[in-house]
Amino acid sequence: MISDRIFGAVVTLVALAYIASATQIQTSFLSDPVGPKTFPMLIGAVAAICGIIVVLRPDEDPEWPQLQTLGALVFSVIVLVCYAYALKPLGFLLPTAVTAAILSYQISPRPVPAALAGTGLSLGLFAIFKFALGLSLFALPAAFHG
Asked: Which residues form the DUF1468 domain (predicted)?
């Protein structure tokens, strides 16, 4: 319960600081009747209300994951960061297949189904993104297509 209360207090303080910074927005003479300050102030007010509710009505103390689970999460984040950096030089298919296979293996440690899932996701997502959504993706590294 204490972690929820701390989180709620931090959210409330950040929301109040956000509202205070929204009051500093300069308005031009050609602004709409609501003005540019209203939307950020509404967002800050909703966040402050949510933070206060969390402080007043916290959940039971959570059961934090074991160290092994936290290590798996950190590893997943590292894999996803490497994926983001690998997309441009290596194209879409290879990095997506490898990343999806690694993450699938973490969910169910069976190598063949993980590799098939990675390959299937890579090809399926490429088809959806390239042909259905019209995104300009490169399937392979730039060196392969000049």
From this structure: 6-137
